[in-house]
Amino acid sequence: MNKDVIQMNVNGRAYALKKGRDYEEADTLSKVLREHFGLTGVRVSCEQGACGACTVLINGKSALSCMMLVTDADGCDILTIEGLDGSDPVVDAFVNTYGPGEGTAMQCGFCTPGFVMETHSLLNENPNPTDEEITEALSGHICRCGCYHGIHKAVEKAADHICKCREEAKEASNE
Q1: Domain layout of the chain by residue ranges
Q2: Can you tell me which residues the record assigns to a coiled coil (predicted)?
């Protein structure tokens, strides 16, 4: 295996990255995603793994891309916020959570991609999480605007939508 070339799938597309041209050995995954791929939805804030803004999915699980060397992503499937579309139930829940009793899931929007990707990871593993499980999953993320209540509501909405879709699909298959 040639260590001067690493391969990865980013948002469903296969890439081969050449050392010295596309990345340097000490580059973090967040740096390469932002600078080489132009995926600026991968936010960089603390660069210490403390804020969650850089969260992406690697092989379906959340990961802090600022804490991972790009070389460690060799052979991985990476999904960023840009790999989701407007019909995505998690994105929809974050966009449409606002108002009295709900709060808002987004204010300035800087932290939103990290929260959305973490929510995907949670709901992939547990489509019907408890309040405590939601709080635990989001505990590594910081929202400087203080939208935690709205973010929690958005996760609940996304989980409800996913569960309803699964129930409808199950009922349709039984007919």
Answers
A1: 5-83, 89-173
A2: none
Instruction: Identify the DSSP state of 114.
Output: H
Count of positions (residues) in the chain: 175
Q: Which two tokens mark 133?
A: 């499980």
Helix or strand (DSSP H, E) at 121: helix 112-125
Query: Which class does domain 5-83 fall in?
Result: alpha beta
Give bridge partners of residue 79 from the DSSP assignment: 57
In sequence order, the 6+-apart residues with CB closer than 8 A to the CB of 104 are 97, 98, 147, 150
For residues 157 and 97, is the Cβ–Cβ distance under 8 A? yes
d(CA 75, CA 95): 33
pLDDT in tens, 1-49: 457 999 999 999 999 999 999 999 999 999 999 999 999 999 999 999 9
Query: pLDDT tens digits, residue range 157-171?
Result: 999 998 887 777 777
Q: Do domains 5-83 and 89-173 have the same CATH topology?
A: no
Q: 89-173, what's its fold?
A: DNA polymerase; domain 1 (1.10.150)
Name 62's bridge partners. Answer: 57
Q: What would the two tokens of residue 152 be? A: 């929690």
